[in-house]
Specification:
Elements (H helix, E strand, L loop, with lengths): L1 H19 L1 H32 L8 E3 L9 E6 L2 E6 L5 E3 L7 E6 L2 E6 L3 H27 L6 H34 L1 H27 L8
Antiparallel strand pairs: 1-4, 2-3, 5-6
Length: 222
């Protein structure tokens, strides 16, 4: 009985703290909703990879916004215990045609050689569609749960989508600039982790103040 009362007391105290610090509570909710949206994306990507992976779209090149940095940059990957190295210039959207992590011979940016394949347009769609679906989840939950907004939903959706596009392209473009420096400074293993962390942080911290503008809180009755 005593333990039950203690648990009730702890929960009551947490609720009181939550209500006493609405801005902190709002930020925590934003963080949790963002992670839920990411989980939706992570779950759906393998499903769409299976759907599109068996189509001819695998053999269609798709490169957007680039190359950033060295057009003759290479990447080394390990596949089935074997190490392969291929040309891999950085694009914000980099989906060289061919089965993932195989080498394909082509000319790109005037450079002919063996390029590391990334699944072509098939894997772009397998990544892009879950990304959009996760942002739909994020939009409605951030609007109602995090910011409790009652603004014009069509305008909010438009500004949310535009902000999302700008932030995503911007964060990925910056990644192409600082990732090679991190790799050369602290190695590919740790450098890759730090680069990915920075990319997530940029999108996370930039989007929060923008959402506060897009989703004004409900006006309280006087």
């Amino acid at each position: 009985m005593g333990e039950k009362l203690m648990r009730v007391g702890v929960i009551r105290k947490l609720v009181e703290l939550w209500r006493a610090h609405p801005k902190i509570a709002q930020f925590i909710t934003y963080f949790l909703v963002g992670n839920l949206a990411t989980l939706v994306q992570v779950v759906l990507i393998p499903v769409f990879q299976m759907v599109f992976g068996g189509t001819d779209l695998v053999n269609v090149d798709l490169h957007l916004f680039g190359p950033i940095g060295d057009p003759a940059a290479t990447t080394t990957v390990t596949v089935a215990g074997q190490t392969i190295t291929g040309l891999n210039p950085y694009y914000v959207f980099n989906f060289t045609a061919g089965p993932v992590n195989t080498l394909v011979t082509k000319t790109l940016n005037g450079i002919t050689g063996e390029y590391l394949a990334h699944g072509g347009a098939a894997y772009f769609l397998a990544t892009f569609i879950p990304l959009i679906l996760s942002q739909v989840v994020s939009f409605f939950m951030q609007r109602k749960v995090t910011f409790k907004s009652d603004g014009h939903i069509a305008w909010q959706a438009m500004w949310y989508f535009l902000s999302f596009c700008v932030i995503t392209v911007g964060a990925n473009a910056l990644y192409g600039i600082y990732q090679p420096w991190l790799y050369s400074t602290i190695g590919e293993g740790l450098g890759g982790l730090v680069a990915a962390f920075l990319q997530c942080c940029i999108a996370f911290w930039v989007f929060f103040p923008i959402m506060k503008i897009i989703f004004p809180e409900k006006k309280r009755a006087a």
